[in-house]
Amino acid sequence: MKTKLQIACMTVLVLVFMAAASQASPAHWTYEGDTGPEHWGELDEDYLACKNGTQQSPIDIKHSELTASDTIQPMEVHYGKTEANIQNNGYTIQVGLKDHQNYIVLDGTRFMLAQFHFHHPSEHQIDGQHADMELHFVHKSGDGKTAVLGVLIKKGAENKAFESIWSSMPATETEEAVELEDTVDPASMLPANLHSIRYSGSLTTPPCTEGVSWIVLDNPIEMSQAQIDQFAAIFPDNHRPVQPLGDRKAVSVEH
Ligand SMILES: [Zn+2]
Predict the structure, then answer these.
(1) Span from the CA of 11 to the centroid of ligand 1 (angstroms)
(2) pLDDT class of 71 with cuts at 50, 70, 90
(3) Start and end of every Alpha-carbonic anhydrase domain (predicted)?
(4) What average pLDDT does the segment 150-159 reach?
(5) Arch. (CATH architecture) of 30-253
């Protein structure tokens, strides 16, 4: 039988554990106001890189300042039809992939596609200009490194590749991801020409972790105004402003 002292000790332990657990949950952040991008670094000590980092994303990609590389191998893209789920996580619409058949190969390292999501307007700028939207394909390597493939989206023709996602897009935050009825094909979401700009950057959301290999495609894809409007009605603005390039070099890679 447990003594009163033992029960009291256990109660204290449970309370300490609960306090630690609640402290461990990351601070809430937003895209505007007191918890907006300029304050992210002050909201949580885990977010310090947002303020103190020197290799942050996104950036303004200036063509006149790009270094051309003929030594970097073109990225290999191995994307195809796959089952997926969809979630409105309060910050974006995110499509999660269940299998591990989609991957890219970057400088000999394989990065598996884990999820893709959208920003409105674009996060990266090209020569000082935002695109209407930006699509981020987020990949992880076996040793935990992150590579993000960014595709700019401009207003134009309706894009059928996004039909199943757009017709299932949750307008409000969802606790869990919901299975998509149709498969998605990330390959159909890329432009024909995969000429890219590469640089070393960070996550564009807290905790703004650095060491992310960025590949931003030079050529945009299109979506109709109605498709852009549908996303914008849920997320009027979910972009982080561009960050200083500092002493980094962005490299242009032919495909
Ligand atoms: Zn993103």
Answers:
(1) 42
(2) confident
(3) 27-254
(4) 98
(5) Roll (3.10)
